Each structure stands twice: as structure tokens, then as C-alpha cells.
Amino acid sequence: MDIDSTAQDKARFFAGAWGRVRALPGKLKAKVTSTAKSIKKVGQDDPRRLTHSLKVGLALTLVSLLYYARPIYDGFGVSGMWAVLTVVVVFEFTVGGTLSKSLNRGFATFLAGALGLGADYFASLFGKNGEPIVLGILVFLLAAAATFSRFFPRIKARYDYGVLIFILTFSLVAVSGYRVNELVVLAHQRLSTIIMGGATCMLISIFVCPVWAGEDLHKAIASNLEKLATYLEGFGGVYFQSSDSDGMGTGKSFPQGYKSILNSKSSEESLANFARWEPGHGRFRLRHPWKHYLKIGALARQCAYQIEAINGCIGSDHIQGSEEFKGKIEGSCTRMSAECGKTLKALAISIKTMTDPYSSANTHVESSKAAMKDLKFALKAASLENADLAAILPAATVGSILVEIVKCVEKISEAVHELSQLAHFEKETVEPTVSPEKPPQLLHRGIIQPVLDGDSTANDNVVITIHEIISTDSPENGKACDQHQVPKPGQKIEAL
Amino acid sequence: MDIDSTAQDKARFFAGAWGRVRALPGKLKAKVTSTAKSIKKVGQDDPRRLTHSLKVGLALTLVSLLYYARPIYDGFGVSGMWAVLTVVVVFEFTVGGTLSKSLNRGFATFLAGALGLGADYFASLFGKNGEPIVLGILVFLLAAAATFSRFFPRIKARYDYGVLIFILTFSLVAVSGYRVNELVVLAHQRLSTIIMGGATCMLISIFVCPVWAGEDLHKAIASNLEKLATYLEGFGGVYFQSSDSDGMGTGKSFPQGYKSILNSKSSEESLANFARWEPGHGRFRLRHPWKHYLKIGALARQCAYQIEAINGCIGSDHIQGSEEFKGKIEGSCTRMSAECGKTLKALAISIKTMTDPYSSANTHVESSKAAMKDLKFALKAASLENADLAAILPAATVGSILVEIVKCVEKISEAVHELSQLAHFEKETVEPTVSPEKPPQLLHRGIIQPVLDGDSTANDNVVITIHEIISTDSPENGKACDQHQVPKPGQKIEAL
Questions:
Q1: Nearest 5°: phi and psi at A82?
Q2: What is the pLDDT of residues A329-359, one digit of tens each?
Q3: Sequence-ordered list of residues with C-beta below 8 angstroms from that of B62, at least 6 positions apart, any chain
Q4: Per-residue pLDDT, A458
Q5: CB–CB of A154/A42 below 8 Å?
Q6: How far apart, in Å, do the first and last CA atoms of chain A sit?
Q7: Cβ separation A308–B305 shorter than 8 A
Q8: Which residue of A139, A211, B257, B323 is most buried, as measured by CB atoms within 10 A?
Q9: What pLDDT is attached to residue B370?
Q10: Helix extents (H) in A242-322
Q11: Which residues in chain B are closer than 8 Å to A301, comparing Cβ atoms?
Q12: Where are the transmembrane segments (chains A, B) (predicted)?
């Protein structure tokens, strides 16, 4: 039997090898198809990538003309090379990136060129033998100091490339071995070709299908809020409805878009850095408060962390919560997350349309806070005698984290409101038309706090009458709803 | 009174202005001092920054000698410039960064130079008039295609700089307007100076106080685990002890070191990218599984998200949990977080010392899982009739998230174990000496599940006898402790 199986193995091996050889052309074909697909995907993910590539090609071809237009070539000679070099190195995806690099390069070249000339002159005072030593020391000191300055976060963020070019130009000029009067001509040629290359890049990046870093940041923040909103709006439905089937454990039906927010910090920061270099464009003025977007981004990340924690809790496949308890908190939890979702959606729309979010978002914030208080009452009301705390816990934890999310969403709402004031968003004119298609909604479905037979340490037991308030989406309603949560004398109100 | 206050305001204003003028030299001094302080801080945060700056200065000075050593200068002429350029652009903080850029630059220059020569030859076939047009088209196409390729994540991660230099060199060579035989000389000069500059950088970065990206990644991952451990080890003490004072709400006493882990993804990825370019160094061989560190890093981030959620819950200043209930779960929760912390610390040490973590970490993983099950029993045992669920919730949520953390830590432990196998960590030889100074510790403090008068849907009520098992830090103990959690027939065990 052992020999038999070895023979079989061998036969299988050779069959497999032959199959692989025969499959080679097919594999090559598959490889080509997959490469073509990934090229298509990269292009489709962001069609501006294709435009950008064509723009770089265009800029480079334009600058190359320097070499073919005799009159220009005679003026600049080999220095024309610097124009090509500048275009390749300076042309970035966003306008802000291109501007930042061009301006950094221009100023750094000018400054370092002047300093280099000075250093050359200074060194020449030391005579034929002293000159190289003095120049060597100067280059060493300046290069070391400038390199060290690149470790400062502020310089790193804005002038990193400038410092690099500064070291480069200073060393080249100081060390080149030309005499000073020759150098001035050379420096002039080089600076003008760099300016020419930089200007070509700037003009093309601004006027041919521009990609504004500021606009990207603006859209990225709005879309992050939308991703959070999508999760939260769908959350209640998926979590509470799917509990009877086994679909809940897998957590597959929850949209996972929010995960991209978790690691969004670095890209947001670089966009904000670039955005500061950009001139006013579209709806954004020159001094648009770009830095404030980072604040909203950080809060959105905070919210995403909470969602990640929820996802961790409900993703654990062996949680079997008490259905009875889940049913009790379903209403308030679903409303909390739905209202948070609506708030975030309203904020995202307000950022997108650049209108003041106050009335539209605030209604939902108030509703979500009301729902949060409802949850508290539902928790108080839940009869616990016959329930197992371990079975209650998963759903209770979800509720508890949702409370944190409500707070986080409120902060986001405040931050967006601040942004709207800093950036002079338009005021909304007609308040009641925020979402006219929405049917009037019961804010409080009426929760009765039963008389518990507990010990009297913490809670006076109060019977609360049923309130049914029809929401018409104005911030006053939220306040009206809050009225029944005014503490009765002697009753301790614990917010969750 | 109104006039009076205006006069006072004026007087105050002038006094203030005069004070500000007088304070100018003082302000300048303060500014200088603060700058000096920040310089000192940047240097002290990582002393290797200073070394790096000096190394760049050294490399640049060495390469500049090209211009002064007559025999070399006569050989290369102005092309010596490319050596300076290469040093400035290529010298990175880590060895891997420098190698990656040097090699990218070298190969890209060679390839693009050859292609450029080909393009020049090809274009010359079209005659005097056709040549610039053909060259223009070629440059446009190649630049556009190469720029587009930079959007592919794999190329972006490893060959971004190479592609840039490829475009640069190709354009320069194709467009330069030299005849082909002149170009060959030029290309040869340029390539050799670039190699010279690159080699200087590589040698200095490898042999003068090298900063290895791989070692940095290795240390960063270990220190991240340690930060998590510090939080978790201290957590129980701070959270449960401070509850009687008002210090809990502020959350100030929790170490906030873990926050830096939340956004560690990009830096870890770039380190891992650079590490792949590095030769074997110190305890790391050439094909060290650097990619696997990213997996551990991702799990550590996952754990940090959970901690962030906990921090959110306990940071809310208006939570007033039930002390009674907190007391009931204190034991198991404190043990869970402490054991998780110990696990992580053991894993961090095992990474640092490159020894197999199996026995040391596994003991703690088992203990934390045992504590997790204890928590379940504690929850079942907690008498809920007289407690308010809203008051219980904060502590219960903390417990519930801790359970998630235990699972996450277990995954981290598995990942580190995998790493230890992939990277051939040394096996531990003497098992019991892992932490000999630690006093024997009660793993289970004996939790009695009382007979509850609940409904009989879910739980058969079982009286569990008290176990007191002295831990001697061997994995078998964990199993022994688990024995009392073996389900009785008919009893449903729900893991948290």
C-alpha cells in the first residue's frame, strides 16, 4: 500500500508538471489580463490620475522645446537641462503640492546661490591653499545644520524640499570651482531656467484640469462623515433585526467603509499642508481655515474608533445575547444610531454645499440625545430579576458605546458649526424644508418606568407618564422632549 | 460709571502697550531661548538625528573633494556635479532608505540612459525635421506612462524614486541635442559620478553609526506592545481604586502612551519597506520576515482602538457607576487587564531579546482567559434585583471591552509566536525562571455562583466550589484552573 501510494504520488506529480507546462501560455495570458485589469482599476479609482500623467507629459514636452528653439537654446545652453529637471521633480498630483515644491525650489535656489557666491568670495580671501579647506568646512557646517533643521516638525511639514534644494545649490555653487564672475552668469542662467520650468508646472497644474488639495481635503472630510453616517444609519436595522438568524455573528452585513477613516491622519495632514499653498479657488478663498478640517477629521477618527469597538463586540461569533433584553433597548438604540447617522449626513451635506448646518443637524443631535436619555429609562425599566447579566452584556455594551458615539457626534457637530463660522458658510434660509419628505416621527415612544422593588439607596422610583410628541424637525422640539427628564425633587438623574 | 470705566480701559491699554514695548528685548530673548530649547529637544528626542546631520555633512564634503583633486576633476569635469546632487538627494536617515534610493537611482539612470540613447538613434532615422517631433512624442508617452505607474501601490512603495529618476534621465538624454557618440561619453561620466556619490552615501550610512530601519521597526513594535502593557497593567488599579474619589472622571492617571499607536500605520509601513532593502545586520538576517511585523503592528493598533473605547467610557465625567457592582467584578477585571499587560510585556521582551515567547506569554494568556471566564461567573452571580442597570452599565462595558482586549492580546501572542518561528528566535531553555521574583499568585480567588431565583430558560443554577490554586507560572496551571468551568450536563456555557 505504501509503494502503491508513492507510485500514485509520482504519477500525480508528473501529470501536474505536464499540466503546468501546458498551462504556461494560459498563465501568461492570465498575467497580462490581470495586469490590464489592475491598470484599469487604478485609472477608474481616480480618473484624475490619467489626466495628471498626461499633464506631466505635456509639461515635459513643452520644456523640452527649449532645446529645439534655437534662440532660447543659445541663451541658456546646457542650463536648459535644469528646466527639465525642475519639471520632473516639482510636478505633483495636487496644485498645492506643485506650488509648494516650485516656490520652495525657486526661493531655496536663489537664497543658496547668493550664499554660495558669498562663501566663494569669502574663501578666496584665504588664498590658493586655504580656499578648499575653508569651503570644505563651510559646506560641512551648512549641510549638517540644514539637515538637522529638517527634523523640526514645522520645517519638515512645509519647507522640507526647500531645505534639500538649499543644501544642493549651496554645495554646487560653493564647490563648483568656477571664478565668481563666471558663476554669476551661470547662476543667472540656472535660476531663470528653474523659474521657467517651475512656472510651466504651476501654470499647467493650475489651468489644465487642476486637482486642488484643498478641495480634496474638503471632500475627504465630508465623505468620511458620510461613511460614518452610513454605518450608523444601517446599524440598528442590521444589529437588532438579524439577531434571530445566525447572520449577526459574522458581521458581514455592516458596511465596512468606516475602516478607511482609522488611518486617515497622514493623508489629511499632507492635504492640509498643501492646501495652504493654494490660491483661492472655486468656493474657497485664500485663507480658508484648512487647519480646522484636521480637527473635524480627528473627531471623525475618534468616532471610527468607537465604531471599531462596537464592531469588535458584535463580531465575536459566540455572543448570544438575551433577545428579551435586546428587544427592550432596541427602540432607543436604533433611534440613537439612526439620529447620529442623520446628524452626520446633514453635516456632510452642509460641508459639501457649504451651508450653515445649524438647524438641520441640531434637530438630529437633540433627537439623539433624547434617545440616549430614553435608553437610560429603558435600562432602568428593564426587569432584571430573571435575566442573566452575562446574556444582557453584549447588547448593553453596544448601547453604552452608542452613548459615547452620540457625544462624539455632538462634538463633530460643534466643530462643523465652528468651521461654518470661520469659513463663512451660507446661512440656511428656509428652515422647515430640511427634509420635508420625512414623515413626522415619534421622538418618544413613551417609556414607563415601572415601580421596582429595589433597595432605596440610589433611585427613587418614579412613574413617568407617556409622552408622544410629533417631531416637526425644529430644534425647539428637542427641548420640549427633554421636559419630562427634568428631575423630580429627590430623584437623582444619572446621565449615561 | 460708564465714562469712568472707559478711562480706566484707556489707561490700561496704554500701560499695556508701553509694557509690550519695554518687553521687546525680553521677548526676543525668550524667543531665542525657546528656539534653543526646541533645538535641544529635537536632538535629545533622538540623538541619532545629530549624527545623521554630521554624516550628511561628511559625505558632501568628501564628494566635494572631487572638484579639488585635479586628476579626478580632469576625468569627470562638470559631471562631478552629479555626485554632489546624488549625495544630497539620496542620503536618508535610515540605511534602508539610503540603499533604496541609491540603488533606485543607479539602476534607473542606467536603464533610462540606455533607452534614451535608443530613442535618440531611432529619432535620428526620421531626418532633421522629423527628429524633434518623434522625440517629443516619445518623451510625452514615456513620461505619461511612467507617471501613471507611480500610482500603483506596489511601485509607489518600492520604486517611486526610481521611476522619477527614470523619467528625468530619459528626458535629459533624449532631448539633450547632443550627437549619439558625444552622449555615450557624457552618459558614462554621469553614471560613474552618480555611482561614486551613491557609493559614498551607502558606505557612510552603513559603516558610520548606522541607523537600521529594520532595527527601528523591531524596536517600535516591541515598544508599542510595551505601551499597551503599561496601560493594561495599571488599568485595574487606577480604575477600580479611584472610584471613591472624584479622580476617576478626569482619566488623568491613565498613561496615554498608547495613543501614539493609533496612527502608527504609515511609519511602520515605510520602515518595513526600507528594511527590505537592508543587508543582514546585527541579529537580523537578510530575509528577516519584516512583513510579519506589520501584522503584529496592525493587531496592536486593534488593541489600541479598544483601549481608546475604554478610555472614552471612563473619561465621561458624569458616569457614576454602582460601587457595589464594581466591587463584584473588580477581581476578575483587574486580573484580566493585568494578565493581558503581563502577556504583552512578556511578548515585548521576547521580541526584544529574540527568544521564543511561548511558555512565558502563554501562561499569562491562559490566566487572562481564566479571568475572563471568572468575569462571566461574577456577572452571573451578581445579584441584580436591587441594582439599577444604568448604574451597572459603565463598569460592565469596561468588562465587556476588556474581554475583547483579551481576545486581541491572544491574537497578538499568536502572531508573535509565528514571528518567532519565521525568524528563528531562540528557544527558551529554562522555563520556570521566567519571572522568579514574582510571588506565587492566586489565579482564582474562588467565586461562588449562587442559586439564583431566575426563570429556567437559560441557566441551570450550579453551586461551584471554591478553588484556590497557587500559580507557579507554567502553562499547565491554566488548564488546571479551567477545570471548574467544564459545563455540567444540561448547563449552557456562554463565553463572553
A1: -65, -25
A2: 888 888 888 889 989 999 999 898 888 877 7
A3: B200, B204
A4: 39
A5: no
A6: 70
A7: yes
A8: A139
A9: 87
A10: 247-250, 259-262, 265-275, 290-315
A11: 262
A12: 50-69, 75-95, 107-127, 133-152, 159-179, 191-213
C-alpha cell at A170: 549651496
A49, A136, A171 ranked by CB distance to B88: nearest: A171
What 3-state DSSP class applies to A426?
Answer: strand
A401 touches chain B (CB under 8 A): yes
B47 chain-A contacts, CB cut-off 8 A: none
Q: Which of B88, B204, B51 is nearest to A174 (CA)?
A: B88
Cell matching residue B166: 527614470
- Match 471554591 to its residue by C-alpha cell: B466
pTM, two decimals, is 0.77
Residue B471, strand partner residues: B441
Q: Report the distance separating Cα B464 and Cα B462, nearest Å.
A: 6
What phi, psi does B355 have (nearest 5°)? -115, 155
Query: The C-alpha cell of A368 is what?
Result: 439623539
Beta-carbon separation of B136 and A65 below 8 A: yes
Characterize the bridge pairing of strands B470-471 and B441-442.
antiparallel
Q: What pLDDT is stored for residue B177 in this prediction?
A: 63
* A152, B42 contact by CB (below 8 A): yes
Which residues does residue B441 pair with via DSSP β-bridges, in sequence order?
Answer: B471
* Local structure of A150: helix, strand or coil: coil
What residues in B contact A132, CB-CB < 8 Å? 68
> CA B360, B363, B365, B368 torsion: positive or negative?
negative
Distance from CA of B313 to the nearest CA of A (A): 7
One digit per residue, pLDDT tens: chain B, 496 residues? 444 555 666 666 666 666 666 777 778 888 899 888 988 888 888 889 999 999 999 999 988 877 776 666 666 666 778 888 899 999 999 999 999 999 999 999 999 988 988 888 888 898 888 888 888 899 999 999 999 999 998 888 889 999 999 998 898 888 776 666 777 887 788 888 888 899 999 999 999 999 999 999 999 999 999 999 999 888 887 787 754 444 444 444 678 888 899 989 989 999 999 999 999 888 888 888 999 999 999 999 999 998 988 887 776 644 556 677 778 788 888 888 888 998 999 999 889 888 887 777 888 888 888 888 888 887 777 666 556 677 777 788 888 888 889 989 999 999 998 898 888 888 765 444 444 444 444 444 444 444 444 443 434 444 343 344 333 333 333 333 333 333 333 333 333 3
